[in-house]
Amino acid sequence: MMPGAPLPKVSMIAKVLFTHGAPEVRWLGPGGDSVAHFYSHGRMALTEGVLAVMRSRKVDRAVLFVPDYICNEALESVRAMSVEIEFYPVGEDLSPDWQRLNERGVGEVPLRLFLLVHYFGFLNKTEEAITFCEANKMVLIEDCAHMLRPYASTGKGSLMVLSPRKLLPIPCGGVLVAHESFEKHLSTIHQSVSVVKIVQWIFLRMIQKGLVALGIPWKTFRKYREEKSISEEVARSETLRTSLCGQFTLRMLAEMGDDLEQISLRRRDNFSRIASSIAGVKGVRILFSLTDEETCPYMLPLILEQGAERLLRMFQEMGIPAGRWPLLPPEVLDSPDKHRIALWMREHLLLLPLHQSLTIQDADRIGKVLCGGLPS
Q1: Distance between CA atoms of 176 and 143, rounded to whole angstroms?
Q2: CB proximity list for 309: less than 8 A, separation 6 or greater
Q3: Would residue 189 be called left, alpha or beta, if left means φ above 0 and alpha means ψ between -120 and 50 degrees?
Q4: pLDDT confidence of residue 365
Q5: Of 38, 108, 311, 369, which has the fewest CB atoms closer than 10 Å, so is most exposed?
Q6: DSSP 8-class letter at 99
Q7: The domain spanning residue 67 has which CATH number?
Q8: Is the pTM of this model over 0.85?
């Protein structure tokens, strides 16, 4: 059975549990005139960043421009603020539809912020976003939640949000990298992720490692997971409260600092192996090409003209953790004429795993199953 996400090493967890002192997370390295703050989730880092900009401008109202192809959960915390969310359309490559943005205009609200998402670890149109924001006096925020770490060509805006928990085996973790001028406007937060949640995460990851080793599918414990999801819904109000990621997560990040290059190489190799299996096949394409050596892919985004749902079920029945984009915001779902491409993408894009806990054999098997499952 293939793990659905990267799994931690037992030796690293043991080492971190008995480590004392303040960890130094060297791999982030904001440097220059930027500062980094670590929260439990990326969505909380985004919220704190928006709040800091509002405080620096001394305004109590703002508009946040967000791509219509975005996970609704990522906006949970922002929705609790006095911030209006404006969904802008994306093109077929998931870059902002600049023509429609310019036609629609950006309004006269005193503070306007523009969120540019770098999807699946691949760079989006950063230079175009800078030009657009400068012309319209908007604050640029880069959503780098799918990136392993900042790239040399990121950090062009005032704020940058990362979510290392999406690519690394850590229990939580969202990072806000902001210009140092905003630091004094950030909230003072003392609450961290509870010890109970850290222990639960360690316990579940150890169970999962054991099941993978025994070849037992994780979905065997579906009943337990469904019961757990109920408790998570009860605790959802707690997740809206901003909290820090805590010392355990920071120590895990510090320990993994020297492994990031190897993790990136493994993910790139898995991407290439799977991609090679469908070279020249009609009716299917990979959304982005792995051309930039700096890119560490989060998932392999596959566009299928037809049969995405059928192929997803086939993968899942075989114990291969493929997936789809999470639920889109209700505002997007309710306006299909305005968000046609985002809705089309939601139905035709399939996400294949690339993470570093997959073996070479796993990647080759995914490619073989993919090639065999495509319409002839």
Answers
A1: 10
A2: 347
A3: beta
A4: 94
A5: 108
A6: H
A7: 3.40.640.10
A8: yes
